Amino acid sequence: MPLALAIPALAGLxxxxxxxxxxxxxxxxxxLPERLTAPGVLAALRLSLLTATLATGVxxxxxxxxxxxxxxxxxxxxxxxxxxxxxxxxLPPVVGGVALLxxxxxxxxxxxxxxxAFGFTLPFTTAGVVVAEAFVAxxxxxxxxxxxxxxxxxxxxxxxxTLGAGRWTAFRRVTLPLIAPGVAAGAVLCWARALGxxxxxxxxxxxxxxxxxTMPLAVYLALEQDLDAAIVLSLVLLVVSxxxxxxxRDKWVxxx
Length: 256
What we know:
By secondary structure, the protein is mainly α.
């Protein structure tokens, strides 16, 4: 291996790994069990798992049909729609939170109507956390499912159509089983992104313990009060992230 490539490669690896090693080195291992079972940590963990799972459900419900439209339907402006779908990937999460407030806030375009008609408000509620997480995580699902749809052989759907199956039946019984691995991988990535979401959540839903304080928000608060607690919370998120990478490894190896 050329030395000119090996040295920057090792430096890049160290740049990525050293911060994670710092977490492990500085972790308060002797008090770890007590800190992990502290009421605040468990509440933040439960809320994070609940909201990330609900957000993934929302993304599956809306994102899979959206991916199908982008992959299979031919309409004017498809490139623009695809670009809009990927905007949350590059948009600063705080900006996403502000945008959500402008639409779903009490004086927002939709939120004002929800408040006056049903007395229902999203900002600074647990439901608001789900909305913020779904907003930033859905592009991961859509991109993954659209890629799976483009890789699936459309002739199976055409064969089902010639046998009398309608569009919905062909999608449910032919297309969906074909793209199931892509949907699963996209759902896992979506869930992981939702679990780590911070900017849009704190902007749109606030940081209220037990109601909107998820794990990333708890880490942010703990940094100002108790560094060891922040390290423990960060370790939990690190373990979850590594577990997700391990679960997706075979998928990525298959793609490469």
